[in-house]
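Take a look at the protein record below and flag anything odd:
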Amino acid sequence: MESSDDEKDGHNGKCMGNGLRPTSANGTKFVNDVLNGTDEHCLENFRMDKQVFYKLCDMLQAKGLRHTNRIKIEEQVAIFMFIIGHNLRTRAVQELFKYSGETISRHFNNVLNAVMAVSLDFFQPPGSEVPPEIRDDPRFYPYFKDCVGAVNGIHFPVIVGVDEQGPFRNKNGALSQSVLAACSFDMKFRYVLAGWEGSASDLRVLSSALTRQNKLEVPQGKYFVVDSKYANIPGFIAPYADAPMGLVEYEGGIQPQDAKELFNHRHSLLRSISDRTFGALKERFPILMSAPPYPLPTQVKLVVAACALHNYIRNENPDDCIFKNYEQEGCVPPLLDFEKPEMMMGETVDVDVPFNAQEIEDTSQLRDSIAAEIWNDYVRDFPII
């Protein structure tokens, strides 16, 4: 019976050094104290404020998560959020909640599966309207009016068996899973593909995202911006490989020298939304930053679940202080060693993608037309002497 282990945890006959019996009431009291305290205390412990936490519990209950005789849903969710929000191992959580490792693990997996059951509800594809972040910024409008967000890849460390380590060893020598995400300018994930081996190229992962059953959808006539490790292909506009990625300081000051350089600078400002979105994700859920000791399928689920919860919290409380830390263009967190990007691949397409040569050429011409329009307006407003 599901509650049997929960009941045994509270009556194992052992005593703590301070004389307290390690009953489940200690874990329950901790959760109650947090939920009866301030929103800041809840955010610190469970990574979201109280009302957002309670609403999440209701949603997960609707998807089948159930109270046990001793552990209510709120405490089950608290255990899960405490683990992923503080990167704690099971033994450390046992000490706080006073349950066996088996019980902690069981409820962790139950909540993870419940979050996965609702995750698709939180990943909404972009619409066809012009994002306000572009529409209201003269640096980007009307040039990038058809841009709906940024696609980027990130590596998260993994633990795999010795026989599986080869494919998961990335170019930096670390074991990782490669994750592709499409982000919108409101700092939400629109699509996430996790679980690829760390040795897979970013373009190969993107190709998989475009051809699998649950594929990345790009609205007709729209595109995402991508960085130089991807190719310039339909639906994905990359920077020019033969121009600086940012503005260069010349003798007369910092100013673009040609259309390609100016395009790359504006493009990089738009693209930074993916780094900032990943930054908020990693700050809220630090378990992603060190390989968690779970089976690989669980490690993959954790990435998707964390992204779904990120979106859920962004929907419910967009003024959350963690999001506030990453809303400005310049607040991009430094990369850790295992996150360092691949070398620039240039303009070649060395992986099969579902586009023909003419479609790729049309995308190149689209980029050229955007760059020319930006440059012509820049020269008109700031004549180059």
Notes: The longest strand covers residues 147-157. DSSP finds 14 helices and seven strands in the chain. Confidence is low (pLDDT under 50) at residues 1-24.
